[in-house]
Amino acid sequence: MTAFSTDNQKNLMLFSGRAHPELSEQVAKELDVPITPQTARDFANGEIFVRFEESVRGSDAFVMQGFPAPLNEWLMEHLIMLDALKRGSAKRITSVLPFYPYARQDKKHRGREPISARLVADLLKTAGADRIITVDLHTDQIQGFFDGPVDHMHALVQLSEYVRNHYSTDNVTVVSPDAGRVKVAEKWADSLGGAPVAFIHKTRDPLVPNQVKSHRPVGDVDGRTCILIDDMIDTGGTIAEAVRVLREAGAGDVVIAATHGVLSNPAAERLASCGAREVIVTNTLPITEDKKFPTLTVLSIAPLLARTIREVFENGSVTGLFNGSA
Length: 326
Description:
One of its GO terms (biological process) is 5-phosphoribose 1-diphosphate biosynthetic process. By secondary structure, the protein is an alpha/beta fold.
């Protein structure tokens, strides 16, 4: 009987879209692997072309893409890259999305509205993604939109460690910007040694995006250092108003901590003048010079992404990165 054998060794290949190459380069350095060379260009009418310069057959492919503006263009590029890998016979394709696009459209608020976060998940699956790695989804339920494994990572470890190293935790209150993120605030409180939790009671007009009318804080904030947490900061209106409410309630220093710094105009101006002592975000999205201001601190999410990619590649435990608490 004649048999055919192969060493069948796994081959990790890292790919990067053009939206946030700096983060991809940081992840590549952490993994000690090169970014696979590719040709990517736009046609005159806006169509996108991508071709990889090396064979991807049988590879364990990890495709990174950031989603700043213009988000739709980068989403289309990412889908095209997934399709190219699928047609190039990659063995497994993992879509690495530090910031999941359309995450805020995760449910219908009124009739005749789309659930765009589910649509994005369907597009990723159809294009060829077998797995998703992402960071701090707007809501956990988005994990269920994708028909495959989703590794939902959290920047809490990096953010809370920075806060512990730079601020005394003896007089800290963790503040959620609304009642919906109180559970996240409780995890923050545990990471800061059992700090008390408060939240801002607010109302939002569903007909007017990016505008919130904040009310009073619920919880002990008087004279305390308030760590105001959120998953993302877009135009900064919500978080700046929350800072004002906390100040009026007698809070001491207010420190803002968020994973995703979307920072759409006029966020930089609002955050610079809102009275917060410091604004801490990660680099899941590129922070360009026009978005920077003196009190902004940007932490790198690359080590977390690299460890996650390595665990997935080696069939290890992603949950173990959070000591089993993810």
